[in-house]
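Protein fold
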Amino acid sequence: MPADEYLTPTETYGPYVTLARAHWAALARERGTSLDDATLAKLRGLGDPTDLAEVEEVYLPLTQLIMLYYERTGALFTDSHEFLGLGGRPTPFIIGVAGSVAVGKSTTSRLLRELLSRSPGSPKVDLVTTDGFLYPNEVLEQHGLMGRKGFPESYNRKALLQFVMDVKSGAEEVTAPVYSHLYYDIQPGQVTRVRRPDILVIEGLNVLQPARRRADQTTGLAVSDFFDFSVYVDAAERDVRNWYVERFLQLRQTAFRDPASYFTRYGDLTPEQAVVMAGDIWDTVNGPNLSLNIKPTRGRATAILRKGANHQVTFVRIRKI
């Protein structure tokens, strides 16, 4: 699709309104953020160049829009429960963040958690990644799925769905398994506890996947059915591939040199060998997963952040109401 097609301030037809970055940034120009460089450095993913200007121009307007949805959803809860003669307090507002490996969705998720928690009223915001719902390596190996880690079938989707349903139902405490990127596996006995936050951010490759069709052609529920807002972090595949290779090279100099790392064997690769290895992993695993499973869910998002080759957001698409 030609780039200029994205840069119109509004669209007459179609499900989205598209805003060029300058237009989008102007929406929050009158309000600053208290985020400083030191805090931002802790929130950025490896190799992610997001700076304070990006926070001000992209993530602050997004946070403000999400807060509008949050406030209106709370008001709807109050009004509908009053109409029905019911009591109780609002259940957590859930935000899904999706996108490819290496596109920057982790940075986006952490920024949203930080900025939302600093919003008026200081809502309690938690963040959970779906990595914790990957099957343990032992199970993946038994089913021949180690080479498809990150594909939908490598996740315990039933457990993930139950987790989100429990959160949305207002359970006092819900737990999620913990995944270690260093060990490349689920950590036995470790859990993340979610105790009735006001807002929960759920980050994952496939969180916007629709429900699977059963053998009898019926469909059940999907995780995304419980989202109140969702974000898809988007970029051209060639750019994401480049970012993945760059990140692999950085990990080769850092985490891969840790003797405890699952990927320690990559630490001794020459730069040339590392580029070839990273490219092969992308072309056989991450690229196909993006094309077949992740990118097709983009049109299900409430907001799409489109990045350019420099990793900066160039335009934003917001689903019309």
